[in-house]
């Protein structure tokens, strides 16, 4: 018995020694760093206390106010938080070829893992080149009528809410609206989520976002320690997703076979790329063909990113407007003036005539960035500017978007909602790369213009007719779902709405 105890003690001491050696990586290389004390590294507050990842990174960011770089540990993986905006820009744009990959699983275990976010190297470059035309200005212009159709349904839905006078969850309603937009613009289908909140489309959306328990831990591990999932051949994606998206793809294709007019939605553009490749029968230089797996994966990506991040921004914006009625009133004056000048018609051109709305959305994205941070992998040895330290290939870096957006050096009193931060003069006065809601450079969000048009359109329609106010159910401040790497309200965002007369 004593021998077994001695072996346990020896193994524990050995593990502790090896752990301390691992956690000495940054200090050994002369990089200012944290000193974690458990195998969970600097993310122990997330795993143990449920603190969301961007807040953990922000605590570290603020603890090293005079450093450009801070060495941390995601579990036992060395990671480098980049605090300096100039260096952030260098990584994202100037020296992008050294940092073009993200932290991801290299071994594909699921047909949904061939989309832009997870691909690396030449495969990512080839894929992005093919998909970029899907979001051209002309394509986006053609999708505005589909967005307007969904906006009309939302208008009817809110009109019913005004009759009861009860508060409602704007996050839930916004999610159902943006999901309907994705149904129309992506698939050419009417998901009808606003009228049927228990539809299969909405339930799948909830499953993708409201992860709990082991599923949430797996998603977190995929981000910070993907090799662990790769080694055990575990997928963090819920099992029902693959059959759902497979069926959705087949359904969309079948509808097109029986139509005389060719559709102009995103799905058709993806199918056209696949069909053209098959016709050309030419090998792809990037090593990946635009086959059904690729279409399926990107459909999954657009479905997830297209409804949730946009819905979050819309609901956060309405929340802040309810808390700041003076901002809401000023914005309503602008949107009504633009609608009156354009006979109530919203086009690609008229949506650009709303500078204050642009400022309000920008401030919302600053305070609640949809991507709270982004990461990169060093793919080639890289000597850091102004330092003697050379990054080894495989070193991971974190660009802390939430922290930069809440840094008092760039945004005084960062918790305050102040659209005036985004006047042309104030934008010009700030250093570059201090505003990154969609990232920047070659790997910035490919659908950012689509999302901004959608947000501008629906906020214009809503604020011209409705007033949003807080209710007894409104949480101030918002409580967040735990153990997440995004800012997702734990209990929704509850507001009251009142329909206005034309002259109110």
Automatic annotation (TrEMBL):
SUPFAM superfamilies: Cytochrome P450 (SSF48264). Pfam families: p450. Its main location: endoplasmic reticulum. InterPro entries: Cyt_P450 (IPR001128), Cyt_P450_CS (IPR017972), Cyt_P450_E_grp-I (IPR002401), Cyt_P450_sf (IPR036396), Insect_CytP450_Detox (IPR050476). It is found in: Endoplasmic reticulum membrane; Microsome membrane. The keyword Metal-binding applies. Heme binds at residue 445. Its cofactor is heme. GO terms for molecular function: heme binding; iron ion binding; monooxygenase activity; oxidoreductase activity, acting on paired donors, with incorporation or reduction of molecular oxygen. It is a peripheral membrane protein. The keyword Heme applies. Transmembrane segments: none annotated. It comes from the Eukaryota. GO terms for cellular component: endoplasmic reticulum membrane. Keywords: Endoplasmic reticulum, Heme, Iron, Membrane, Metal-binding, Microsome, Monooxygenase, Oxidoreductase. Belongs to the cytochrome P450 family. This is Cytochrome P450. It comes from Parthenolecanium corni. The lineage of its organism: Eukaryota, Metazoa, Ecdysozoa, Arthropoda, Hexapoda.
């Amino acid at each position: 018995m004593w021998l077994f105890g001695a072996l346990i003690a020896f193994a524990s001491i050995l593990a502790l020694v090896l752990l301390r050696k691992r956690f000495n990586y940054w200090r050994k290389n002369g990089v200012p760093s944290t000193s974690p004390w458990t195998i969970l590294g600097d993310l122990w507050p997330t795993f143990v206390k449920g603190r969301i990842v961007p807040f953990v990174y922000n605590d570290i960011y603020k603890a090293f106010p005079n450093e450009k770089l801070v060495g941390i540990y995601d579990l036992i993986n060395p990671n480098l938080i980049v605090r300096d905006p100039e260096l952030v820009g260098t990584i994202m744009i100037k020296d992008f070829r050294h940092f073009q990959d993200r932290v991801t699983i290299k071994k594909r275990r699921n047909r949904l893992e061939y989309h832009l976010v997870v691909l690396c190297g030449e495969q990512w470059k080839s894929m992005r080149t093919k998909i970029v035309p899907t979001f051209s200005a002309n394509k986006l212009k053609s999708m505005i009528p589909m967005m307007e159709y969904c906006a009309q349904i939302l208008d009817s839905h809110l009109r019913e809410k005004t009759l009861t006078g009860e508060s409602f969850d704007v996050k839930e309603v916004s999610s159902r609206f943006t999901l309907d937009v994705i149904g129309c613009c992506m698939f050419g289908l009417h998901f009808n989520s606003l009228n049927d909140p228990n539809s299969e489309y909405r339930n799948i959306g909830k499953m993708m976002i409201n992860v709990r328990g082991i599923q949430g831990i797996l998603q977190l591990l995929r981000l910070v320690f993907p090799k662990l999932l790769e080694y055990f051949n575990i997928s963090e994606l819920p099992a029902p997703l693959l059959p759902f998206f497979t069926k959705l793809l087949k359904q969309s294709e079948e509808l097109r076979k029986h139509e005389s007019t060719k559709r102009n939605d995103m799905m058709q553009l993806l199918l056209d790329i696949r069909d053209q490749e098959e016709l050309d029968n030419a090998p792809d230089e990037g090593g990946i063909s635009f086959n059904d797996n690729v279409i399926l994966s990107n459909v999954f990506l657009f479905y997830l990113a297209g409804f949730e991040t946009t819905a979050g921004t819309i609901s956060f914006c309405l929340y802040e407007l309810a808390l700041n009625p003076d901002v809401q009133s000023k914005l309503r004056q602008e949107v009504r003036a633009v609608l009156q000048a354009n006979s109530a018609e919203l086009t690609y051109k008229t949506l650009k005539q709303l500078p204050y709305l642009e400022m309000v959305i920008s401030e919302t994205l600053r305070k609640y960035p949809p991507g709270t941070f982004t990461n990169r992998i060093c793919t080639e040895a890289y000597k850091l500017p102004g330092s003697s330290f050379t990054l080894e290939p495989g070193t991971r870096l974190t660009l802390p978007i939430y922290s930069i957006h809440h840094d008092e050096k760039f945004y005084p009193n960062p918790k305050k909602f102040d659209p005036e931060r985004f006047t042309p003069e104030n934008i010009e006065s700030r250093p570059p790369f201090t505003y990154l809601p969609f990232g920047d450079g070659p790997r910035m969000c490919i659908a950012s213009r689509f999302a901004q048009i959608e947000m501008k359109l629906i906020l214009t329609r809503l604020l011209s007719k409705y007033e949003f106010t807080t209710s007894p159910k409104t949480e101030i401040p918002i409580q967040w779902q735990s153990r997440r790497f995004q800012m997702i309200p734990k209990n929704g965002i509850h507001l009251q709405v009142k329909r206005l007369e034309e002259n109110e």
